[in-house]
Amino acid sequence: MRHRGFIIRMAALAVVTLVGAGGCALDPQADPGGTGGGLAPVGNAEQVTGASGVAPPDQLTQPTTPAPKLKAAATTPRVTTAPKPESGRRFANPTPQNKTRCEQGEYQREVEGYLARLGGFGTVSVNGWQSDADCAAIKKFQQRYDIRPAAGRAGPLTYDVAKRLANTDTSRCNAGSGTTFCVDLTRQTTWVMRDGKVVAKPTVTRTGMAGYATPAGTYKINLRALKEWSDPYDVWLPYWQRFNGGIGFHETTTYLHNASIGSHGCVNLLHTDAVRWWELGSVGSRVTLVGRRPGT
């Protein structure tokens, strides 16, 4: 009997244990990942709660070391409120970025100043900062005087040309009545006067190189031809106006701004200026040259 009673008690205990285990398995709290497989796989609970191992941009990361726990009895609920914004306070706007497509050159302010003095190329702000208006004005200036590339950048060549033109003193030319072609050999500029008034503003030129210096003095145009052949140098000279021996005005046959070379005494002109000088000139027109080209 004792042995039989012991067996009955052990069987009852096994039933109770099995019923308890089944209850835990069906508990929805034991399946936080919603997979139906009891414990959630590693990382699944993070997806449900939105937690992530790496903080997204602009999100403050949490400290890796947890703060020490305080005793419940010593902890008082603490209410934190967001700080009130300061009355009337404004945050300064960031410095505006340069939106122009033109690159700013190292002579930006100087070129702006010279273009403002020269006029005729558009509105420029003399502040040393490139703008769309400055860019357009510098490009127009570069295109007018065949400065390459005409990209709106205030580089050394643009600075040099603008400075020479802006500092040309037209009163140095001894111009009387009629038409006078004036050449400043020092600044390598030329302009035209009629009856004491400027009728063609100063433009760039290139005169004789070392060993072929163009002489200063006053002369008269004595021969003109739309295209003259140069026997010594085997080249055509467009819009030829001779005023001193074999020296005269003509359109340049090379890049005018190549300062390492020069003419053999002639006064080289850009195409636009050569055409204009031809239109204004005639046999007998006066030519006055002052100064001396540097390096000759």
Automatic annotation (TrEMBL):
Name the pathway. Cell wall biogenesis; peptidoglycan biosynthesis
Q: Which domain of life is it from?
A: Bacteria
Keywords, in A-Z order: Cell shape, Cell wall biogenesis/degradation, Peptidoglycan synthesis, Signal, Transferase
Q: Name the segments for region: Disordered.
A: 35-104
Q: Where is the L,D-TPase catalytic domain?
A: 179-290
PANTHER family the record matches: EXPORTED PROTEIN, L,D-TRANSPEPTIDASE
Protein name, per record = L,D-TPase catalytic domain-containing protein
